[in-house]
Amino acid sequence: MFKLIGAAVLVAAGGAAGMLVARDYARRPVEIRSIISALQMLETEIIYAATPLGEAMERVACATDGLVAGFFREASRSLSSGEGATAGEAWEKSLAGFYRQSSLTAGDFAILKNLGLALGRSGRADQEKHLKLACEQLKREMAGAEEAAAKNTRMWNYLGFCGALAAVIILY
Amino acid sequence: MAAAPPGKAYQYRPEIGFINDVGPVLPLKIRKIIPSVHSDLLVRLEEIRLRALRPLALGLDTGDVFINEAGTVVEDPEKAYLVSRDDVERCLGLVSGSSIYALEEEIKNGFITIPGGHRVGIAGKTVLESGRVRTLKYFSGVNIRISREVIGCARPLLPGIIDSEGGTIRHTMIFSPPRCGKTTVLRDAVRMISDGIPELGLPGRAVGLVDERSEIAGCYCGIPQRNVGLRTDVLDGCPKAEGMTMLLRSMGPSVIATDEIGGHEDVRALEEVLNAGVRVIFTVHGSSLEELAARPALNYLFRLGVVECFVQLGRDKRAGVVKGIFDSKKFLKAGAFQCLS
Fold first, then answer.
1. CA gap B109, B112 in Å, rounded
2. Is residue A104 over pLDDT 80?
3. Which DSSP helix (H) or strand (E) runs through B320?
4. Nearest-CA neighbor of B183 among B117, B106, B274?
5. What is each CA distance from B327 to A1, B273, B289, in whole angstroms?
6. What are the residues facing B235 on neighbouring strands?
7. What was the pLDDT predicted at B329?
8. Could you tell me the residue ranges of all domains in chain B?
9. What is the domain range of residue A32?
10. Residue A1: which residues within 8 A CB-CB, separation 6 or more?
């Protein structure tokens, strides 16, 4: 009886672990797509409306949802708090929190961090270049992420269960 | 028992209320230093100068002083607080709300106006495009010029500006070298004309104010931060020549006021307004009538003979001291026209 319960627990745990890894693979392209879309909105606010950065980030936050909205809202709050933070510092602080909760990789994080260093520090033409560059880099990451998701999501979903089952059989 | 009152340096005085406007644009380290400066100095403060890798300087009415981290004046510049490049960058970030792109035109002109009407001048490396300044980069210096309202400072000018017989305002030129209070006096004159001066029997009049540098009305997001009167319409950030014509066409002013007339274009627009039945008050940089007459555009204006009153300002212990009021006849006697070619 105990063996049976132990086997069930093992299969459930293995399955859940596999699903968690698979979820990360599946979420990453979705998150990157959402960030690209948010950056394009930010670009519109900066280039065409010359909206001050804090307000532009708040508008982007209102137009997006989930983690990305939280990321932009937090950056906007830090910038407007009157504590003397630069745009780069506000962006990086918010990005660190977002990164912990997201499925982004270190490469995605580095692209966004570099963008933060340039945000709001130059004229419109220059800002456009920085935002477009970040979007292009993220699009490349997204292509890789989609490929990895197609390859690995199903595999990890099965691998968790199958690996656990294999372990159960070996242990029996 | 109540807490002991703060030291003299921390006592609130309305004259140092500018700290509420200026504080948020200063980097944190300097934000802590300024309120520590003795309030007697803060009352006389005209400028806060941040120059990268040089001492923190305060511009007072009597000249510059260096201050250390405790906010104390120091004679030796090496003992003063050394402004870092990061301080200057941060200050610019705070002034612009981390949105340099939103203030490209202001940066091209070299200054940004912050809430309260204080002007922040910027120095750095200019980026040229077809020989004209496109923008600035590598910011190296910031000069925060404190804007102060001195209610009633234009009162000594009233006998010159107002024609009590005709009950009208004379076309008036206010001139002085920089930092003698032209803008402050003009602002107060505009306020009084706009509100009316009951003791002189002058009712309030609609005044059109062209505030190209946002210094007179100190507009922030279009709203005047300074008292420029109940009947004053402000064209903020508008080129003077264009602004005067726009006001004339659109707002039906009795009086048009503007700051720092100098170029041919300004004088041509002024000529239009002077001949349109509107009274004009404007300021000009110059320390003497001879100096003014030596400038080609102003020389032309003098030849027209339409300006009726000339007010010369100077600086003794304070700015805004009236050195002389000349009507056009006295102006002739003063010999300025001898300089006209």
1. 8
2. yes
3. strand B319-327
4. B117
5. 114, 20, 12
6. B210
7. 64
8. 8-145, 155-339
9. 2-171
10. none
Retrieve residue B302's tokens: 């003098």
Taking the CA atoms of chain A, what radius of gyration do you get in angstroms? 21
Residues in chain B: 341
Regarding pTM above 0.80, the answer is: no
Q: Give me the total of CB pairs closer than 8 Å, taking one residue from chain A and one from chain B.
A: 61
Question: Which pLDDT score is estimated for A106?
Answer: 94
Whole-number Å distance between alpha carbons of B150 and B224? 16
Q: Which CATH number describes the domain made up of B155-339?
A: 3.40.50.300
19-38 of B, contacting A, C-beta below 8 A? 24, 27-28, 31
Q: Give the pLDDT score at A5.
A: 87
Measured distance CA(B249)–CA(B117) in Å, rounded: 27
Please tell me the predicted confidence (pLDDT) of residue B340. 38
pLDDT value at A67 more than 60 = yes
Residue B89 one-letter amino acid? E
**Residue B276 confidence (pLDDT):** 87
Assess contact for B169 and B161: CB atoms under 8 A. Answer: yes
A162 to chain B, minimum CA–CA distance in Å? 53
Contacts of B28 in chain A (CB under 8 A): 83-84
Per-residue pLDDT at A60 exceeds 90: yes
Instruction: Say what the pLDDT of residue A132 is.
Output: 96
The H or E element containing residue B119 is strand B118-129
Q: Is the pLDDT of residue A89 over 50?
A: yes
Q: A21 vs chain B: nearest CA distance in angstroms?
A: 39
Averaged pLDDT, groups of 10, chain B, 341 residues long: 40 65 90 89 90 95 91 93 94 91 87 85 89 86 89 88 83 89 92 90 92 85 87 92 92 93 88 89 90 89 88 80 77 47 33
Residue B135 pairs with which residues in a beta bridge? B127
Number of domains in chain A: 1
Tokens at B289, concatenated: 């009538």
Residues of B in contact with A47 (CB under 8 A): 101
The number of residues making up chain A comes to 172
Measure the CA–CA gap between A45 and B21, rounded to whole angstroms: 27
Which run of H or E residues covers position B174? Answer: strand B172-176
